[in-house]
Known about the structure:
The complex is a heterodimer of chains A (617) and B (344).
Chain A: E1 11-15, E2 17-25, H1 30-43, E3 47-53, E4 68-76, E5 87-92, H2 95-101, E6 105-114, H3 120-125, E7 142-146, H4 148-155, H5 163-167, H6 170-181, H7 187-196, H8 201-220, E8 226-230, E9 238-244, H9 245-259, E10 264-268, H10 275-281, E11 290-293, H11 297-309, E12 313-318, H12 320-336, E13 340-346, H13 363-368, E14 377-380, H14 384-401, E15 404-410, H15 411-415, E16 417-421, E17 467-469, H16 484-500, E18 510-511, E19 516-523, H17 527-539, E20 544-549, E21 551-553, H18 559-563, E22 566-573, H19 578-587, E23 591-595, H20 604-616
Parallel strand pairs in A: 1-8, 2-5, 5-6, 6-7, 10-11, 10-12, 12-13, 13-15, 14-15, 19-20, 19-22, 22-23
Antiparallel strand pairs in A: 2-4, 3-4, 9-16, 14-21, 18-20
Chain B: H1 2-10, H2 31-41, E1 52-56, H3 64-67, E2 71-74, H4 80-90, E3 95-101, H5 102-108, H6 110-119, E4 123-129, H7 164-170, E5 175-180, H8 184-196, E6 201-206, H9 218-221, H10 226-229, E7 230-233, E8 240-241, E9 247-252, E10 255-260, H11 282-289, E11 298-305, H12 311-326, H13 331-335, E12 340-343
Parallel strand pairs in B: 1-2, 1-3, 3-4, 4-6, 5-6, 7-11
Antiparallel strand pairs in B: 5-11, 8-9, 9-10
Helix pairs in contact in B: 2-8, 5-6, 7-11
Amino acid sequence: MDNNNSTQDKKTLTLEDVVIHFAGDSGDGMQLTGSQFTTSSAIAGNDLNTFPDFPAEIRAPAGTTYGVSGFQIHFGSRKIHTPGDTSDVLVAMNPAALRVNLKHLRDGGTIIVNNQGFTPKNLKLAGYEKNPLDDDSLSNYQIHRVDISKLTANALEDLNLGSKIVDRCKNFFALGLMYWMYNRPIEPTLSWIKVKFKNKPELIEANTRALKAGLHYGDITEIFTTRYEVRPAKLTPGAYRNITGNTALALGLVAAAQKSDLELFLGAYPITPASDVLHELSQFKNFNVKTFQAEDEIAAVSAAIGASYAGGLGITATSGPGMALKMEAIGLAVMIELPLVIANIQRGGPSTGLPTKTEQADLFQAMFGRNSEAPLCVLAASTPNDCFIMAYEAVRIAVKYMTPVILLSDGYIANGAEPWRIPKASDLEKIDIKFPTNPENFLPYKRDEKTLARPWAIPGTPNMQHRVGGLEKEDKTGNISYDADNHQKMVDYRTEKIERIANDIPDAVVHGDIEGELLVVGWGSTHGAITSAIERLRLNGKSVSHVHLRYLNPLPKNLGEIMYNFKNILVPELNKGQLSTILRSKYLVPAIGYNKVQGLPFKAAELENKIEEILRG
Amino acid sequence: MAETAEKEQKKYTAKDFQSDQDVRWCPGCGDYSILAQAQRVFPDIGVEKKDIVWVSGIGCSSRFPYYMDTYGLHGIHGRAPIIASGVKMARPDLSVWVATGDGDLLSIGGNHFIHACRRNIDIKILLFNNQIYGLTKGQYSPTSEFGKITKSTPWGSIDYPFNPVALALGAECTFVARTIDRDPKHLQTMIKAASEHTGTAFIEIYQNCNVFNDGAFFHLTEKGKKENNVVVLEHGKPLIFGADNDKGIRLEGFTPKVVDISNGEFSRDDLLVHNENNKDDVLAYIFSRMTYDPDLPTPIGVFRKINKPTYDSEMQKQIHTSIEKRGKGDLDELFNKGETWVVK
């Protein structure tokens, strides 16, 4: 290889953070490319945040705009809260990928295209009348036209592989080029290739060559004159790995099951974007985890209720349409007061809606989606990391208070990834479970004085046979009762039991000053965007603070007090104003909603603009 | 442990299985008989009370668990088989029973029923089939006959009924039986047989609703009628019925025909002999189809009883194998899976 143009001739710039967006056909392997770049960046010591954006169709027709699959990664030497509002670099494997993602590229940003992807057919499919690379329509950007397909084919020429296989290696060429440009280590990807294709040596060779060819191309070509360095971030010392929200949620559940000595039982029906929870948990059989792919959503939750009745840790995971189907059964769990964790990985709705896009519009459903007065505990995870913590919390509360707990996550944090500081199992708080065994004076609905929880007496316990069911229960005995006063009493008990959980959860924490012009109250996956916006505004001297709620029912006891110390309260949500409605009605505060339902997360800049607008008055 | 269980259960009588709750079915309801026979049989099934769970859905029949002094879960409409499946999956050591009705199991809960059958999960399902909705006061059910006039079908029902036995056979249920509330001995035998089966056991019990569908099965239960209208399936025996055991069922091609065995034209040797363990379902299915044929008697008894691994035991097996192969799960190892790095 001609090495006349070596790295030494090229300059290296140091950047604080970079956003790269990989985009191509759904079959181009962009998710894989993105996740490899993520691992490599994590190992390079950066903080990061990622966002995969893919179509609901498995392999949408090649070249179409609706078939574009993208992966955005934001990495830096500082704390990174979001995958980035706009990208600095767009890697586009075809015209459709360019067209769909150009609007998210910052002015002056870099475009790297696969020249061979810009065929007349693909240009037409993307709706370009002429090739945008040939005119000056992209003059605001730095365009690099790279013969990615051709150079990949050249590198693999003597391997005698079919043209399809060769073409499928082109994403690794692009990856190699980006590794060169951002000084990433390639070893993690090389070892990944070896494991992935361990029975196909020819594919190990092909992908390794494609990756190295991309790397060397950066080195020798004249079109790239600069490479960049992004130094390690200052992260809390410890061991780390990358984790998506769904994986973190699954691990949190297994951990809680282990720490409570319960057998985890997951009933689930495949649904986007929750299926990964089932996939993950199905691997953990040696942790006594039982996973059951049910015949439908109702069956999934009903089996989990049966498991809880029998003394297992009943869990179900789903998304909005599945939640709708499960609600009657969740009402049963409220009535028979059994522990149950329902993870709702929210997506765009209503109905089938936008299966692969994110939304936070199931809060009302979680709060009020059942017939009659059927209160339960509602939690929300705010980041991929937080999915672990809140899954653990959901189990703790469910078993302590004998109640269903709905844990809200969403597609954005479920599929998004960030570094996770790996906890030590021994540091996790033990969850105490007491199955009563003394039949003397045993009554199935005699409540714990403090928590109001009823005893969890399980089949197999001698002389404690009893019956529970969906009909109203008589206080203490649990026998069927249609008595008017008893019904009032039992409804009140069920309500108060959930309210008392407020004594057992952390206070809400204000980020920023505890009084001021404006308080942003957020929940769930908007955490990153809000945090970024608030950080920047506070640097500019604005009087803004942030509270992020992870406990939505009951709410933290100090929330009202916090809110009363601010002139304005802004509640940004990816819905039409659900938390803001709850806060207004519960606390009589003038909360203003900032609402977006586009299937996409907030951009920090959108929030900054909105906050500044309010501050201007 | 097994020995203790044996000793303890021997002490049980029918009374031991009566709970302290008042039974609230209408006087004269067939459910009373089913409850009484279950309470009579349960002392003999070899399971301690503490290890028995009754699960039900919604409807008259679904009150059943409240009256049995075992563990009980009165669930929601149609979901009894899947709630029971959850109990069994979590705790394969328990003996899990379902009490359900024709609306509960075959209408709103049809999906869970067929999937329980195909999985061969070790639960016992007792279908109280009265061919009517009782608790909602008299609408036609998925087993009501075509043309049935009820509150919701003043012009007659235009739904064709399910044949529950045929449905269970079609869904690969490994134990399928039918019995009648007014034949206590037979009912007891069927419950006992179900208790001895490992796998999904399904018993269709014809049950008289004396308020909304009185007499639906009188042709099968009343003296002078039942003799000619019921044929009892017994393993290894020919299909014989009639007041004087003078009739039998013979197969002509694939069609069962009634023949007279008293006049010398046909003998017992010409008759169909029942083999409940037949893995090939054809005969059981043919028997199931005799149900609604006015020229043929209605079969009761065990249609099919075959063995295959159950869902719950397979689930348990995977867990054991996984622990054997990988060792008992270690959380720290799990957390550290994949690429990790250390920040100092």
